[in-house]
Amino acid sequence: MNALKTITALAAILLIQSCKEKEEKKIFIIKNDLNIERSFETVVLTKDVLKVDDLSAIGIKDIKTGQLEVTQTVDNDGDGVMDDILFQPQVPANTEKEYEVVTVTAEEEPEAPEYCYSRFVPERTDDYTWENNKVAFRVYGPTAQKMVEDNVSGGTLSSGVDAWLKKVEYPIINNWYKKNTEKPGAYHEPSPEGLDNFHVGISRGVGGLAVKKDSTYYFSKNYIEWRTITTGPIRTSFYLKYADWDAHGNKITESKIVSLDLGSNLSKFEVSIGGTDSISTGLTLHEKDGEVSGNEKAGWVSYWQPHADSELGTAIIAPVDYFVNYETYDTEQTDLSNAYANLKVVNGKVIYYAGFGWKESGQFNNKQEWEAYLNTVSKKIKNPLTVKLKS
Hints:
This is DUF4861 family protein. The chain is α+β, with helices and mostly antiparallel strands.
């Protein structure tokens, strides 16, 4: 009888332990509502979403394959505590996939190249430059501005966004600046990695911001503050602040968080702005030998142009809450002709995406392929992957 009681007690303990383990498992569902496969889209998970206190030892496991996903943790505010964990699931069309939150050691985490990279560049005045495995960009800082204002050669006064035309997956920023230090202007020359032959000047480049009053566009000057937020295998992001500037008697305050994710040709701009209820963000028209096109329903404007011995597409996409329309501004003034997306300011914020596709990189062969990509990205923005904890 005592043996039977012992067996019964052990069975009860095992049952309780089994139930406890099942209760402690954290499983969440990623749902894709579109009729297209989703990949290279970043899902952002917070401690609140996952019901955990710490993200530093968290892993994400694909329940079907048992494989750990590549992840990246992010400290958004620089307080030393990780706020988000990022990963990029691959979810077939009209499908749900389940993932488990697990505890992992540093040795267990899957390795992945850190293609998403950005940094401040003091060796080239004070550029801030960023890239992923598809594209690269840069903007200009206060030293470059002061050089122009003091008539010192080599400066740049522009809040436009420069495009660096790369055609390799691996990071090129450090290599190109090193070459430029050894031989000024070296990255303007063709190489197997690509080159910088995209002229910005005072234009908006690829997604620079403006405020339109009457028929005139007003711009800020160069950024005055920067802060790198994260780099890694999935995302790079950073903060920029601009000095207050004037738009026809209106004081404009402007700062932004810019991010670029693995696999995307478009940087995301999250702008905090005051002094205006609308902005325009532009694409330079260069020699005006290209074609401006747009899709107001999908929320994008594009410029496809001949570029040196190749072709180049640039574009801006905005969520429906922000996109109003697009227009072409053509003037004889140097670098001031731009295609603009006109966007609403909502509660002091504007969100848009801006980037490019270079034919020489092998990513897009023509305007049709580029615009098909923009339409697909627009659908994904309107219908993001959803996350739900499984009860």
